[in-house]
């Protein structure tokens, strides 16, 4: 069974009571989607079912929004933005997909919130060109780090992106304009006497938790890959091996590993887009 984010939003009820609440939410969700997709139902009945689905899954939106608290944007605004993603998910969800609605909806909700941060979350207004360049630099840095086995230089980034070194430097400096927050700021429990400052609570994000919804969506697609391609993905993304190390491991050239990796990732990306 897929990991279900609804189980994380069922409140503090322990053990059996929590499981029962999650199961009740699933049953109710299935009933409402049945009405929403029933062509014989009246438009009024389908509208009510749609509204009920949105309200039923609002705890999922709140759960996703809490991951982005204390990053310079009001929590209430993040919930509103995430709700837009929830509504889109309700309208697009296909009950024949064989996955839980929460597993399907989570990436869309997270995507809406991240898009909001890209557009609004700047302490100093930065031109769209630099925002997009910053995202290109981030993506190219990850790719070059894999192929080179080290962090790329600004010149290598410039050649990969197709811009000047000065543009790369400007793009890197624009990151400093992203929304800032005082380390003395406290969380939402501060008015009840239980809040901590950001300096007290600062830590490192759990990357595995951040990507759990993507991993669950990709899992069935990975099962259909040929053994060699599946092994290359395992070595690269689960054992953190470089392309050169993978080439030595499976007995092919680094360039061949790069082509296989690019082709496999593109195939997975197209499959995900086709399902969406």
TrEMBL record:
Keyword Transcription regulation listed? The answer is yes
Please state every residue range assigned to the domain named RNA polymerase sigma-70.
77-90
Single annotated GO MF: DNA binding
| Keyword field | DNA-binding, Sigma factor, Transcription, Transcription regulation
- InterPro entries, from UniProt? RNA_pol_sigma-70_dom (IPR014284), RNA_pol_sigma-B/F/G (IPR014322), RNA_pol_sigma70 (IPR000943), RNA_pol_sigma70_r2 (IPR007627), RNA_pol_sigma70_r3 (IPR007624), RNA_pol_sigma70_r4 (IPR007630), RNA_pol_sigma_r2 (IPR013325), RNA_pol_sigma_r3/r4-like (IPR013324)
Q: What is this protein called?
A: RNA polymerase sigma factor SigF
Name any Gene Ontology BP term: DNA-templated transcription initiation
Native organism is: Nocardioides faecalis
- Per its UniProt record, what Gene3D superfamilies does this chain match? 1.20.120.1810, Winged helix-like DNA-binding domain superfamily/Winged helix DNA-binding domain
Q: Name one Pfam family in it.
A: Sigma70_r4
In terms of NCBIfam families, this protein maps to: SigBFG, sigma70-ECF
Which CDD domains does the record associate with it? Sigma70_r4
Sequence segments annotated as region (Disordered): 1-23
Highest taxon listed in the record's lineage: Bacteria
């Amino acid at each position: 069974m897929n990991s279900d984010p609804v189980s994380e939003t069922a409140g503090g009820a322990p053990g059996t009571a929590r499981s029962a609440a999650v199961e009740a939410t699933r049953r109710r969700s299935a009933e409402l989607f049945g009405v929403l997709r029933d062509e014989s139902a009246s438009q009024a009945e389908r509208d009510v079912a749609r509204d009920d689905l949105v309200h039923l899954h609002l705890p999922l939106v709140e759960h996703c929004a809490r991951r982005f608290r204390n990053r310079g944007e009001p929590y209430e605004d993040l919930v509103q933005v995430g709700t837009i993603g929830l509504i889109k998910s309700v309208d697009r969800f296909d009950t024949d997909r064989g996955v839980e609605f929460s597993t399907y909806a989570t990436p869309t909700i997270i995507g809406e919130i991240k898009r909001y941060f890209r557009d609004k979350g700047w302490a100093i207004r930065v031109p769209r060109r630099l925002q997009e360049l910053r995202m290109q630099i981030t993506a190219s840095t990850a790719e070059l780090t894999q192929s080179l086995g080290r962090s790329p230089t600004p010149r290598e980034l410039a050649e990969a992106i197709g811009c000047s070194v000065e543009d790369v430097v400007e793009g890197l400096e624009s990151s400093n304009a992203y929304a800032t927050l005082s380390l003395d700021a406290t969380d939402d429990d501060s008015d009840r006497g239980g809040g901590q400052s950001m300096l007290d609570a600062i830590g490192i994000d759990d990357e595995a938790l951040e990507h759990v919804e993507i991993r669950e969506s990709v899992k069935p697609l990975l099962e259909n890959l040929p053994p060699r391609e599946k092994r290359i993905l395992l070595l690269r993304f689960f054992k953190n091996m470089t392309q050169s190390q993978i080439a030595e491991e499976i007995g092919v050239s680094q360039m061949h590993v790069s082509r296989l990796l690019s082709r496999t990732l593109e195939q997975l990306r197209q499959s995900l887009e086709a399902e969406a």
